[in-house]
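pasting input
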Amino acid sequence: MGSVGAKEVPTLLTPDGRRIDGRRLDELRPLSITAGALNQADGSAFVEWGMNKVMAAVYGPREVHPRHLQENNKAIVQCRYNMAAFSVDERKRPGLDRRSQEISKVIAEAFESVIFVEEFPRTSIDVYIEVLQANAGTRCAGVVAASVALADAGIPMVDLLPSVAVGKVAGSIALDLKKEEDNFGEADLPMAMVPQSGRLVLLQMEGHMNREELGQALDLGVQGCRQIHEKMKGALRERYAPSSANPQEANA
Ligand code: ADP
């Protein structure tokens, strides 16, 4: 353990390139996705990613509330990202704070750019993201869960939307930061990418990195998104064609 002032800083990277949880710089945390985790919503998904646990539920296309938000030529996408009071170490004050509002807005805009909204004029597609346990990268886990939930609801989209945060930890670019890396690292850069085209539809950054590092971070994020995309497709196959998701089972 090193220390900066009174704050204890954990060793984020060992000399042989291992991170605080033993991962390599380009390794994701374990990710499991369950499509259709809820009965009541039109579509849903549950994501366990490292120590994050995130549920997403989707309704729509349905009537717009409040009515004045209705658009005559397209569906609107409304998103509510919320962190449960029990999702973090110290109880979080319940309710929508500025951070949740900002995250809800950027996620809604990301999905609006991949959903064929013009096919459903005067309707709303409502996306609910509930973070039950948080350990950094919850907006990305929320995007992944919501994207699978939208597919589960049968909403037509250009493609699924994998998402991951890349960052800078102890001077090195690292994939999929966990809490300590987010807290004590130099930068955190969540992104979401349309796999088909490589188009980025969500990109934010906190902290600092130079241009070269930014290029490296984007490359690593793209690589991470491609792996996550495979898992998302696997979760949908598991729900809708379980035998093709597990060919051994089909042969048994
Ligand atoms: P993200 O979860 O998308 O990485 P942030 O970078 O804002 O978003 O947050 C990083 C982590 O900090 C969260 O995943 C969570 O573990 C923690 N965190 C965020 N907001 C709070 C809060 N109000 N109280 C306690 N911990 C929080």
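fyi The pocket of adenosine-5'-diphosphate is lined by residues 88, 92, 99, 134-139, 165, 179, 182, 188, 190 (CB under 6 Å).
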